[in-house]
Amino acid sequence: MSSSLNSIPDLRIIPSSYPLPHEEHDSQRSLPLMHTLKTTSVFTNPPILTVTPQDQYIILDGANRCYSFQALQLPFILVQIVHYGQNVSLGNWNHALSDWNMSTFLASLKTLQNLDVIDARLDEGLGWIHTKDGKTYTIVAQHTVHTVAERNQTLREVVRLYQQNSTLSRTASSKPDDVWQAFPSAFAFVTFENYHPHDIVDAAINRAFLPPGISRHVVQGRVLQLNYPMDILRHDDGHIEEKNQQLQSWIVDRFKNRSVRFYAESTYHFNE
User: Fold this and answer.
1) Fewer Cβ within 10 Å of end Cβ, the chain: N or C?
2) What pairing do the DSSP bridges indicate for beta strands 94-98 and 88-92?
């Protein structure tokens, strides 16, 4: 195998307590992941992090993996470092909802505090609900919601509501017609406002978490199927510098042996 990468990806071993999430973890994903981490011999897909000028490690993608390492008290985690404006861009996931119904969804939303559901499309809102008959509802925060932390908390309650009662499918599309075609059983399609890199960093530093599955980071040169020995991450022998030197030597050897392939094109994976 050969590689077309211009540079070796920035992979590091850091204490598992360092990464700061910008979103809540998803227990439905993290619980089976923890079971896998207890028994696997290799670590496959490193979480994607960025580093602030103050040397704070912000999780962009992989909150469930980082949470699982922390919950299992594994001392070290292997991560990939990227930087906004260089090899990562920020977009949104939107949510197609199935296996529930619209009337119950709307009624349940109205029981939540600090929000209103407006039967119209407004320019600003926490999110927008689209229906198959062409209606759009706007979820807006009430005047009692003042801070970003309160706004994100309200949004977490909205997502948690339908996550617990419906089948949620993520999609990068923002066009309802495309969603109805891809998810014919969906009864609603929820879209969100656009976020900016500073929103992600601020949410992490201030613990004003977004709901899981809204921010979408597109990474050029994302490392997959790394298969690095887990035992190196499980053992806290106090020699993190040596662990990183060993990691860098291992990566260089993989490139020298032509065991790394770079795919520049977008791909569809049918085995997720």
Assistant:
1) C
2) unpaired
